[in-house]
Automatic annotation (TrEMBL):
Name of the protein this chain belongs to: arginine--tRNA ligase
PANTHER family: ARGININE--TRNA LIGASE, MITOCHONDRIAL-RELATED (PTHR11956:SF11), ARGINYL-TRNA SYNTHETASE (PTHR11956)
Residue span, DALR anticodon binding domain: 515-641
Keywords: Aminoacyl-tRNA synthetase, ATP-binding, Ligase, Nucleotide-binding, Protein biosynthesis
Length: 641
């Protein structure tokens, strides 16, 4: 059988481990029969401990080999496998097979793949074509208009940006969407507050979000004040605004439109600083009334709506309805509305409660808006998949949304297959500003400014280490940003963590600054040998990679570089950018520990230019992979620090 016969999803020209997997699969097919080919390919794994590189648990072939004994199969394979250009040794231990890759082939081929793909950055090393022809819509960040951006939005932004890049790296066509929140009560409060206390000049001149938030706090205090303590008329005023808002009062709509525009301009600044771009600024207020009505009509037709009364005054802390009194068995939604009931859907059989879709005054709740928005987006983008990167406090909300969409007969897509909530835990030690403000708020801008300042201090404290910095401000900001982002990405999404300034901004240990430092050090080494020794890689043909064979560290590093394309696939499957962060750290450790035994300059001095060149190629490839992985995490790898 042709050893390079491409197996499903394999990309031998871009992934050395696929070349190896294909070759092992074909050798085993020769020994055991063609039917094992694919299952062998899919079952080979990287050994977690030496001395072998790869492993195959023979029982995994059970389904195709039926009644043969796994240990006997392993022994037979070990005996009959003929070492070749790619595999130099095969051993059996019980029912497990181990393989060692021939070092010379690995050195040459891996470095060749990395070097040649780095010449075509569009299809850089690590990327693949699995998602070609498929479209992803990814919604992330989604702050509420005129409200500051807080830590929850930050983690969504950082995870969402990394996932967008990962999907693009896996060949998908990605549309990044920001669904700006629009909370009725909050907007009514804000509009009332602005008319009463606001100043148009200040709004245009100052940081509009912070300014509006200030206005909001003033009116909020009035609104929440006990009767007699402050202006009692505020409550009535807000109620009036709320009514006007629901009726579509042009003055209010225009005012909120302006708030929205100014908010977006402000968010864009933050996103630029974070190296994140959106394709679409969508929003809760932009969901079409027609789609909302269609959803309700359809649910009504299917007999899924029930009327409920809302017991006022029993609202939970976050403003959600805590108590519902249900009147079952009524399904004609016009009748229900006429009776001044809210409309809900009973999802108890799925253990998802009875979410309210429409308030007694006819307005849509956030769930109904999300349902209609999903349908609108499908018509617009025809996505194959849509992700919502939102904190885990909204698990129930999305489970309800997706369930309702899958119950909806005329939903144009299969919600259970196409929609996914990418949730994450909250960062501890940082309060989230809410509609109901608390005293200890932490805003993103403050965090980024503090990170920048801390980095600047650290850099100034050891000038000898950072002498090549050209723009201290910018570099400090970028390292600070890396520090914060890496901290957000490094834990699995389900893990919450304590924000720890000391740890985050350290150049030692597994931190963002350490990654930047490692990358910049590789760049600086390249610059130095080019300048002082005229050493640079001009073509691959002239480089003798076998000169790297005497150094075990070089082999270890090359093998690790070979695993990168599969890490990119796995991180997508698990939706865990943390897989990529872990990869970066391990690679940075390998690079750091290689410095001692794998110098470049010293060989130039000794006249061994070929060795120096081979080592330079290895470091250039390591730098390329570290840089690509960092970029996928939306970090900007620095060339000098
Ligand atoms: N704006 C919301 C918040 O700040 C998040 C929106 C999440 N996305 C959605 N489609 N519901 O908490």
């Amino acid at each position: 059988m042709d050893p390079h016969f491409p197996l499903p999803k394999s990309e031998p020209s871009a992934n050395f481990l696929h070349i190896i997997g294909t070759s092992i699969a074909s050798s085993l097919a020769n020994i055991l029969g063609d039917e094992v080919n694919q299952v062998v390919y899919a079952s080979i794994e990287i050994s977690t401990e030496g001395p072998y590189d790869l492993e195959l648990a023979v029982p995994k072939l059970g389904a195709v080999l039926k009644d043969m004994n796994p240990s006997e199969i392993a022994a037979k394979v070990a005996k009959e496998y003929t070492p070749d250009e790619l595999i130099e040794a095969v051993a059996a231990s019980g029912s497990s097979l181990s393989f060692n890759i021939r070092s010379a082939s690995m050195m040459r081929q891996v470095l060749e793949i990395i070097y040649s793909t780095s010449q075509t950055p569009k299809r850089g090393y690590g990327t693949n074509t699995l998602g070609n022809g498929k479209r992803l819509v990814i919604e992330f960040s989604s702050p509420d208009i005129a409200m500051p951006f807080h830590v929850g939005h930050r983690r969504s932004t950082v995870i969402g940006a990394a996932l967008s890049n990962l999907y693009a790296a896996n060949g998908w066509d990605v549309t990044k969407l920001n669904y700006l929140g629009y909370r009725g009560t909050q907007c009514a409060l804000l509009a009332a507050g602005f008319d009463k206390h606001g100043s148009k000049e200040k709004l245009e001149k100052e940081d509009p979000i912070m300014y509006l938030y200030g206005v909001y706090l003033v009116i909020y205090r009035d609104f929440k004040a006990k009767e007699g303590q402050r202006r009692d008329d505020t409550k009535q005023m807000v109620k009036d605004y709320f009514k006007r808002l629901e009726k579509g009062d042009p003055h209010l709509i225009e005012m909120l439109q302006r708030f929205r525009e100014l908010s977006i301009l402000e968010y864009i600044k933050i996103y630029e600083r974070l190296n994140v771009q959106f394709d679409v600024y969508d929003g809760e207020s932009l969901v079409s009334a027609e789609s909302i009505k269609d959803v309700m009509d359809q649910l009504g037709k299917q007999g899924l709506l029930i009327g409920v009364t809302m017991e006022d005054g029993r609202k939970s802390k976050r403003g959600k309805i805590a108590a519902l009194k249900v009147e079952e068995g009524e399904n004609k939604h016009e009748d229900l509305l006429a009776k001044d009931l809210a409309l809900a859907i009973d999802l108890n059989e799925f253990k998802l409660g009875k979410p309210v879709l429409q308030n007694p005054d006819g307005t849509a709740t956030p769930i109904l808006r999300d349902i209609a928005a999903a349908i609108d987006r499908y018509h617009k983008y025809h996505f194959d998949k849509m992700l919502y990167v939102v904190g885990n406090q909204q698990n129930l909300h999305f489970a309800q949304c997706f369930k309702i969409l899958s119950l909806l007969k005329d939903c144009p897509f299969d919600a259970s297959e196409k929609l996914k909530h990418i949730n994450f835990s909250q960062v501890k030690g940082m309060a989230i500003p809410t509609l109901w403000p608390s005293a200890n708020l932490v805003f993103l801008k403050d965090i980024l400014d503090s990170a920048k300042e801390m980095m600047m201090k650290r850099i100034k404290a050891s000038p000898e280490k950072f002498e090549t910095i050209e723009d201290l401000e910018l570099t400090s900001d970028q390292i600070g940003m890396t520090a914060v982002k890496v901290q957000d990405l490094q834990a699995k999404r389900s893990m919450s963590y304590h924000f720890d300034w000391e740890r985050v901004t350290s150049f030692e240990g597994d931190t963002g600054p350490y990654l930047q430092y490692t990358h910049a050090r590789l760049c600086s080494m390249e610059r130095m040998v080019a300048l002082e020794d005229g050493l640079a890689i001009s073509s691959l043909e002239s480089i003798d990679t076998s000169l790297l064979l005497s150094t075990p560290k070089a082999r270890e590093m090359v093998f690790y570089l070979a695993t990168f394309p599969d890490v990119v696939r796995t991180a997508l499957k698990t939706h865990e950018p943390s897989n990529l962060v872990t990869y970066c750290f391990k690679l940075a450790h390998l690079i750091s520990s290689a410095w001692e035994t794998l110098g470049v300059e010293v060989f130039v001095g000794r006249g061994e230019k070929e060795v120096a060149e081979a080592r330079l190629l290895l470091y250039a490839c390591a730098k390329n992979v570290l840089g690509s992985a960092m970029k996928m995490l939306s970090l900007t790898p620095l060339e000098r620090i």
